[in-house]
Write a structure and sequence with these properties.
GH; 7 strands; 6 helices; two-stranded antiparallel sheet; Aldolase_TIM; alpha/beta; three-stranded parallel beta sheet; globular; TIM Barrel; hydrolase
Length: 167
């Protein structure tokens, strides 16, 4: 795929997402095959357990692999109305869990892919997804993923270096 992308003459940017659902340490070899992002985990579900494992356990040891034009991808955001066709339902995450989910993905410099129906977005979800301060953290030019600096039982403290020595 890397060779095909390099051989392609196009006027548009192409983003190459490498997905092996977090298997085979894709973050180690994804950049070498031309990947711009790589899935670091299995599929996320809209439960606190799934979001906690994918957002707070899986990223602990792979922060160094994330950088501009090469991103760890913990899967889509599971906010708003989810499902297929007429079978849409609200996410099972509470409001506080949704705040945590979106904020952690921003801290991880993760791609902010939405898994919801954009035509059915409620005011809460729209407000959450358009929070300028959180988006600014995600889009920081330094491109660093947050790292875990403290953990004790169910408490974690993450730090993200930002451009101009901000944190």
């Amino acid at each position: 795929m890397n060779k095909a992308l390099k051989a392609t003459k196009t006027q548009r940017d192409i983003v190459y997402s490498v997905c092996s659902y977090g298997l085979d340490k894709v973050w180690e070899w994804g950049p070498n095959v031309g990947g711009n992002l790589w899935r670091t985990t299995n599929d996320i579900t809209d439960t606190w357990f799934s979001m906690k494992v994918i957002g707070f356990e899986s990223p602990k040891s792979i922060a160094s692999f994330s950088r501009p034009n090469g991103w760890n991808d913990p899967d889509m955001l599971i906010l708003g109305k989810l499902g297929w066709g007429k079978e849409l339902r609200n996410t099972r995450l509470t409001c506080n869990e949704q705040y945590t989910h979106f904020t952690q993905w921003a801290m991880l410099a993760a791609p902010l892919f939405l898994g919801c129906d954009l035509t059915q977005m409620d005011d809460f979800t729209m407000g959450l997804l358009t929070n300028d301060e959180v988006i600014e953290v995600n889009q920081d030019l330094l491109g660093k993923q947050a790292t875990l600096i403290y953990e004790n039982a169910d408490i974690q403290v993450w730090r993200k270096a930002l451009e101009n020595n901000k944190q």
